[in-house]
Specification:
Shape: globular
Helix content: 10-25%
CATH class of the largest domain: Mainly Beta
CATH architecture of the largest domain: Sandwich
Number of domains: 3
Structural class: alpha+beta
Radius of gyration: 23 Å
Largest sheet: 11 strands, mixed
Number of helices: 8
Distance between the termini: 20 Å
């Protein structure tokens, strides 16, 4: 069930990224059995709340969908893209693994059926006296979570960087002092390139360093990760991803002059600044809740490498996989695969050695480098791993002409940091539990399930 918080979050997400998404607020979807499905009575609401955020004047969509006259010529293409779940751009497979996600952009099946049936009936306008409501479109430069949480409590900017209109990959690595004087728990975090740089900033990682007793900086952990299309991270209740006192933030920003993919700007961006917006819990959050530690880490995949290297032959394919287990129970809070232009799918599984059973958690079959989504599981559905369970992470690569993102299928592709190279890892947020906490979460879920079943039997 979608909550009002989810819907409000999505409204901010879609407007911030101008990427399109799901914002259903009581739309009554029509079925193919209706006498007539019309734009004014049925379809306009779906398009207005899922497409216009991109397909509007000044938006990143290649055409405008703000009224019937603009939509009608594109009806067959809209039907094709919607029916094949290519739009909105959220590649997460239906029917495989966990489906309860926060910030899920996917259309409901009933909405897809309505659009398909409307086009099959000739895409009629309907009663001209029926005026569908227009969506409230937010400023795309606004922070994702501003509607729910207000403005960030802390903004950590990078140094200003000039990004030319063309040329080779660029990197900037530098430290910034955010001015933190006490340990704080992060409630939400977002990385956002300013202005026109959203298509030329490929990724922007941020690590946390703290001084030791001699004043030398030592790596503490990861603050967050950004790649093209990512909207940010929300932390579950009862956990703490810590920004420690006296921390220094180390930026690692990768830029690709001219941009990548359909959202490329193709122009010079002067004095670009990438910002981290952080929302904190109250100062007494740790003492009041005794939260478990959560962290975000890069989990690499080495199986499938040739002679220790990731190599994809011209006009060929390859696959990588990695394995990770923990010496304590954990909860997996989010899964974000990462690759470049030849990567096209990924999956996350859990292997249980005691039973020999493998459980598939998530599958992304049409992954694209222009939309890096952090798939955040609803807390009651997030995977719980007992001690010894093994994360199995897989990614697939297509270096053929069948891959629409492939700039040159005749090239040998190797692992590396350039946009034309490939990468093989996933960003995974993990809550680290003790046995007592693990047992309590398992018991709570069983209790909720039993109460749900008892309620459904009335």
């Amino acid at each position: 069930m979608k909550t009002m918080q989810d819907l409000s979050i999505k409204a901010s997400i879609f407007s911030s990224l101008a990427a399109g998404g799901l914002l259903a607020f009581g739309v009554q979807a029509a079925s193919a059995q209706d006498d007539q499905i019309t734009y004014n009575s049925h379809v306009a609401k779906i398009i207005n709340e899922n497409c216009v955020v991109c397909h509007r004047e000044g938006g990143i969509g290649p055409m405008q969908f703000e009224n019937y006259d603009q939509v009608r010529p594109w009806a067959p293409l809209i039907q094709f893209k919607v029916a094949n779940r290519q739009m909105p751009p959220y590649a997460y497979d239906h029917g495989i693994g966990i489906q309860e996600l926060k910030g899920d952009w996917r259309l409901e099946q009933s909405e897809i059926d309505t659009v398909v049936a409307w086009v099959n009936q000739g895409a009629p306008l309907g009663d001209p006296d029926v005026v569908p409501p227009k969506p409230e479109l937010r400023d795309p430069s606004e922070w994702t979570f501003a509607a729910e949480l207000g403005q960030p409590d802390l903004i950590v900017p990078s140094v200003a960087i000039d990004i030319p209109a063309s040329g080779n990959d660029m990197w900037s690595k530098h430290f910034v002092n955010p001015g933190i004087t006490q340990d704080r728990c992060i409630k939400a975090v977002q990385v956002k390139p300013r202005g026109d740089a959203r298509a030329v900033v490929h990724h922007a990682n941020s690590d946390v360093y703290v001084p030791d007793e001699n004043g030398d900086l030592q790596e503490y952990g990861q603050l967050t990760e950004y790649a093209m299309g990512k909207w940010g991270e929300l932390m579950p209740e009862g956990v703490c991803r810590t920004l420690p006192a006296n921390a220094q933030v180390r930026w690692d920003i990768h830029m690709f002059p001219g941009g990548v993919g359909p959202t490329a700007e193709g122009q010079m961006v002067k004095n670009n600044v990438v910002e981290i917006g952080i929302w904190f819990h109250d100062e007494d959050y740790i003492a009041a809740t005794q939260p478990y530690k959560q962290d975000l880490r890069l989990y690499g995949m080495r199986e499938g490498y040739q002679n220790g290297e990731l190599i994809i032959p011209p006009n060929g394919y390859t696959m990588t996989q990695g394995f990770h287990s923990f010496d304590h129970p954990v909860r997996i809070d989010s899964f974000q695969p990462h690759g470049h232009l030849r990567m096209n799918s990924a999956s996350l599984e859990i292997f249980y050695p005691e039973t020999g059973r493998t459980e598939q958690i998530s599958q992304i079959s049409n992954w694209s480098a222009t939309w890096h989504h952090s798939h955040t599981y609803e807390p009651d559905a997030a995977p719980l791993l007992p001690v010894g369970a093994v994360l199995v992470i897989k990614q697939w690569y297509d270096n053929t002409a069948n891959n629409p993102n492939n700039p040159d299928p005749d090239m040998w592709v190797v692992g590396g940091s350039r946009t034309g190279d490939e990468m093989s890892h996933a960003w995974i947020a993990v809550t680290h539990l003790d046995q007592e906490g693990f047992d309590k979460l398992v018991a709570d879920r069983k209790d909720k399930e039993q109460r749900s079943l008892a309620g459904g039997s009335d």
